[in-house]
Every structure is written in structure tokens, then in C-alpha cells.
Amino acid sequence: RGHGTTDQDGEVVATLCGVVERVNKLVYVRTLRARYKPEVGDIIVGRVIEIAPKRWRLEINFSQDAVLMLSSMNLPDGIQRRRTAVDELNMRSIFEENDVVCAEVRGFQHDGSLHLQARSQKYGKLQRGQLLTVPAYLVKRRKLHFHHLEQYDVDLILGCNGFIWVGEHVVVREIADLKEDEQKLSAEAETFTPIETRRHICRLANAARLLSALGFTLTVELIIQTAEASVSSNVEINDMLGAEFYVQTAEGEAKRRGDLLGKKR
Amino acid sequence: MAGRAGRRGLDTIGTVIMMCRDEIPEESDLKNLLVGKPTRLESQFRLTYTMILHLLRVEELKVEDMLKRSFAEFHAQKDLPQKEKLLLQMLRQPTKTIECIKGEPSIEEYYDMFLEAEEHREFVTEAIMQLHTTQQFLAPGRLVVVKSKSDDDHLLGVIVKNPSATLKQYVVLVLTGDCTSSALAPNLSSQSEKGPGDSQGYFIIPPKGKRGMDDDFFSSSRTRKSSGVINIKLPYMGDASGMGFEVRAVENKEIISICISKIKIDQVGLLEDISKTVYAKTVQMLIKEQTDGKYPPALDAIKDLKMKDMDQVKRYHAHNNLLEEMSKNKCHGCIKLKEHKSMMKDQKMHKDELDQLKYQMSDEALQQMPQFQGRIDVLKEIHYIDSDLVVQLKGRVACEMNSGEELISTECLFENQLDELEPEEAVAIMSAFVFQQRNASEPSLTPKLADAKKRLYDTAISLGQLQKRHEVPVDPEEYARDNLKFGLVEVVYEWAKGTPFADICELTDVSEGLIVRTIVRLDETCREFRNAASIMGNSALYKKMEIASNAIKRDIVFAASLYVTGI
To answer: With an 8 Å Cβ cutoff, are B537 and A28 in contact?
Structure first.
């Protein structure tokens, strides 16, 4: 007796449409197109909707909004201290509305909404890139959600809630360097992302959109493969979402699966 | 104690003042107190499943990092920066490439084969020495091939005298090459200018004699046997017929192979009356035997010496095969073989050191690593994590269990062991997880409770055996007994049903305070099981746990204070 089942006259009956899973004696039904179901430790990408006292509210692909407390966020100068009223007033300088943020699920609150934390260097505000939405069930839980694609110099973050971020690579810096970086930051604001990187970002993003439309599970390898296939077939970036490339990718995938089956036998 | 005085890192001297009120202790005691050794700090780090599962849930941390930070690894980690520097230094040393004059260097394979062949040969020659048939062959006059002081050369020689009571070594006359001056140190003489062709000659013959090890001890002992007196000082070197020779005492192990041929020698002439002519004659006979720079063929271990042991024969054949391979190799006849061999040896040593250093710095050398691996395997087998180390449903449920042993409780839940039980009975069984006293009186249980108890116990035993299989140091019986203590089952059952406290205290000899403490902890356990039920989606269990929690939360056990009522 588990999720998606109920007891009816002593018989276990399914209430949802899906695959039956058995773990020891526990029987539950796993749906194929489920809504996002958060777990502790998931990596989430979300957008800030509101700034509330001492917290930010983020929209993720869930029935409720997630909460990111001010205390769960590293301060810009990196020092560990109590958050004062001044910090609260300066919340806007860290994240504003409509900023894209990457964080990790810390737990659930009593009303069921998510509690997030962004205490490591890898989490935080995401800039210079694209955010895509795909159905949440296409992103499976793996060991690694952050991927740094070196050949394109691009960061790819597969959020478990179905939000995918493709953006320029951010160098993770040690806290000690932050002071020098402050001077650099002002200089950086002037430099733009090189056009090659931008092309790569767009290509990868389109690859992800394409795969999600076709309903394939999103993995890094698959996205890279699709992007490379598009490069080798000389498809323009904006044509990637056109019909021919769809068909080509689908055929490629079908062939690959056929090969796998053949190998197994 | 005096070592703890003063500010840490700032003071070099500290002052300790001891105030003795009544009597001054013994001087030895005082001394011990002041300058004795402090207790050794030992790491109490315990690697638990809960810890592993929690760490695996977070993407950033690796469990190995956690292990590295424990105190047990303190010593290793302290040396880490030094080792890193050493490693960089070693990597920067340029490796000399071996230039092969015959084209592509195949010296590496050759060297590997050489090493393997040496190993086999050692084994085989030792084995041969054990066979008693060899003793028959090692009579004076038998030609043997002896290993020289350097690793490469092998010298042809003849046995002059067998070991006797006083001299436990074979006296052998060996040819050491052309015109070596006898005044030179023995080392130099054995590094003959014999062409490489000679030293390669060794490889062509399937050797299987005794192992050659260089031994330079000599003795001028005397025996009372008629022909046994040795009048010369060993090692005795000389020149005859254009060839240098040496009479030396060798151990079994230095004799590499026993040749088929024998020559006639004059023991007396060689050893007692030192006559040049006898030497010259013997040397000439030896040279004759040495045809074309090759040594005479050696005895075959299987046919002549009748080696029978399976292992030995296998090794012998392996050895021979390797020799054939080696002779096919390009390096075989190469002039630079010796140089290259020594260079290879250096390189290998260098590489070995490098590997050793890397291993020590890596994750593999952690003390807890084998246990960690074992536990990961256990978790994989019971499907708490999948092969990618991603935490599954069962793992997530196990993370919830903080009181009570994680594996047993999770298995109990997933086996639906609490299903047929009423809430009171369920909570009674759960008390086994939290009760902390071993030698309580045995409770008398209803049949249903007894069944449930047995099932839980069996689960624990099977888990213990599983862990043992994967090399986690756990004994199944002890594991089950340590983590499940059924002493309070009846008490809790009665309490949950509503019996007053005074009555339940009569049922057992456990002290009241312990009963109260156990029941309070039990409530905590109920809450955890309830959370687990909501993760699993088992609403029946959820409700059951709620009812159970309410059933035990009453009256004196949950009174906030014993002295003030009403709060």
C-alpha cells in the first residue's frame, strides 16, 4: 500500500494511472507524467517572484512557492555573521524580482512549501543565459546536476523541477578572492559575452527544447549529442526547431535504441 | 598536566600551581601528574549508514571528504602538503628515454619478461635444490653455471668440492673472462669483458639448476678428510691459458644450472698443492666445454632430476616459455642491453615510488575505506541506493530513522510487519528499538506479539548476515541483540491499552525512571515512523502511528513536571 493506491474491500486498488512498483512489500503506482515532487537535496532552479521580510519567494514548477531565507544565503562579502536589519534592507541588492536563482531543497515546511538553501558557491544568482521550462518528469535524479561543458565554455544546470539553465560559465571563486573581484565586477559589467558562446548557448537551449518536445529524458550526453548533430548537419540555429531537424533527431534516437536492443540480444 | 599550562601557541613556558589541602600526595604520583604523558587522543568516528545516506543526498559533498576530515586521518592529512610538494618534484624530474639502436624500443617488455623469468627461476631453482636427486649430480667435476656478483653475467664453472661439515658451500672454479688481473677486487673481475653474446648465452639454455645468488664469503677452513684440505685462500683468482679464473665458495642458490657434462678434475692439485699446471689444465678443459660462447646444455628438470610437483613443473615450463619469448625479442642480442636494463630498473623504481606516493595521497589509503565500501555494497544490495549512488525511496525513509537502527526499522516498515498489529501492539514492538537495558526480565507476550517479535528478530539476523557477507565488521547475533531489546514489550503494551502506571511497574523489574524515559523516546519514534509513512504513501500506517502516539501520551509519563501540576 503506497502512493496512488487505496484499500477497497480488502483489495489494493490503484487510484492513479501508471506503472506499478514494488519495494519489498510496499506497492505503489508511479505515474508517467507526474507533477514535480520535491525531495530533500534536489537542485532547483527558480525565479524570484516576491521579496518578503527576511526571505525571498521563488516560483518553481510546483503547487506552492518555495521560500529562500535570507539566512540560508551567503552574503556578498562572504563573512559569516548575523543578518542585521541593514542586511534585510539590502536584500534587493542580492536578488531582485525576476532573477533566476539556483538553490537546493533543504526541507519542507509545515504547510508543505519548500525550504531552500543556497549556501555554496555554486548556488546563487544565474546570469547571462537562458532559462527553459520542460516537463519535470523528463529530468531524472542523477548524481550530478551541474554540468560544465568545457568545449563550449557553458554551464548547464538541470533543475529537478523542470527548469533548465543554459548560460555562460561562471568561475567558482574562493571567498578570499571576493575582495579583488569587487573591483573586477565593475569592469566586467562592461564586457559582453563573446558571440561564439552565445551561439553555443542558443544551440544547446534549442537542443533541450527539441528533446523535451519529443519527450526524451534529458541527459547531458543527449543534449550535447543533439547539438553536435545539428552542427554536423549544418542546421542553422533557428532552424533547429523546424520540422526537418525534429525528424532527423527522432530517427537518430530510434536507431540508437534499436542498436542497444540488438546488442543486448 | 604541566604541558597544558600557558596560552596555546603564544606562551612557551607555563606555570602550574598545585594546592594540596589535607595531605601532599606521594612524590611519584606528583611527578606523574606533572610531567606524565597525557591520554592519547583517539578518533571516535563511527561510520554509520545514516551518515552515508545523508551525505549521498547532497550533491556537493563526497563521503570520502568527510572521512578525510576525521581525526583518524589526522596524521596522514598533516603530511599531505609535504607529500604534494614531493610529488611535484618527482614529476618534474625528467625521465630519461631509452634509445634503442635497433629501432623502436621494446626494452620495456623485455624487462618485464626478464623480471618474470627471474621470479620463476628462483622458485624453480629452490625447488630443484630440495629434490634429493640433485645432490647426486652435484659431485666434483660437474659443470655448473654460476651467477656472478653483477646481476647479468653467468659464469661457467666446475664443482671442485662439495659442502662438508665445516664448509657449507660448494667450492667452484669459475671462468671469469679474459685476462683479468687477479690483484683487482673481486667485483671487477666478475664484470667480465666477455661479449654480450656470452651473457646472452644463458638465455638460450633452459636453465633449471640452483638459483645463483652472489655470495662472497670465503673461508679457509680445514677438514680432516684426506682430500679435503683447502690450502688456498678463497676466492682465489688467477690467470691460465689466456682466461682469468676464480676459485670461490658459492651457496646453493648461486648455482644457476647444472650442466650435463662432467670433466675430470684433480681436487688435490687444485686445492691442496697449488700447482699452476693443474689449474691451467682445468681451465683448458672448461674452455673446451664452452663451445661457441655457449654453455653446455643443462640438465632437464623433469627428465633427469625427476621433478614431480605440479606447481614446480608448471613454473618450469612457464620459465622456459618466457626464455623463448625473450630470445625472440629484439633486445636479446643488443649491445646496449645491460645499460638499458639498469636504466629500466631505475625508471621502474622511480615509477614505483611515484605510485606509492600517489596512493598514499589518494582516497584509497583512508583507514575507513574498506568499511565504507562494504557498507555501500550493503546499501546497494538492499536497494537503498542504486548503482549510481542515487538515493532511492528506501534510502530516503532510512534517513528519517534517527532513533532505532536505521536498517532494521526500514526493513520492518517495508515488510509491512506492523500491518496486522493493532496500534498498541505496534508501539509495543517498536519499544524494542529504544529500550536500552539488556538484562531485563523476560516479558510474557500474547501469541501475536511473540510472532511479531520473532519476525523482527529474524529480520535483524538476516541483515546482520548480509553485512557480514560484505565485510562490514558485524556479527549477526550480536547485531540483533544489541539493537533489539525486547524487555519492555509487555509493559508498553499494557500502558498503551490504558493500564495505570502503578500496575505496569509490577510487571517488570526495570526501574520506573527507565520506563518513563523509554516511553517518551517511543513517542519520538512514533513520529519518525509517521513521517516515513507519509514518504512511503502508506496512509494506514500513518493513521496507526497517530493513534499509537496518542495512546501512550497520557498521565504521568508525559507530565511536563512532577512537582508542578497543570502545565
So the answer is: yes
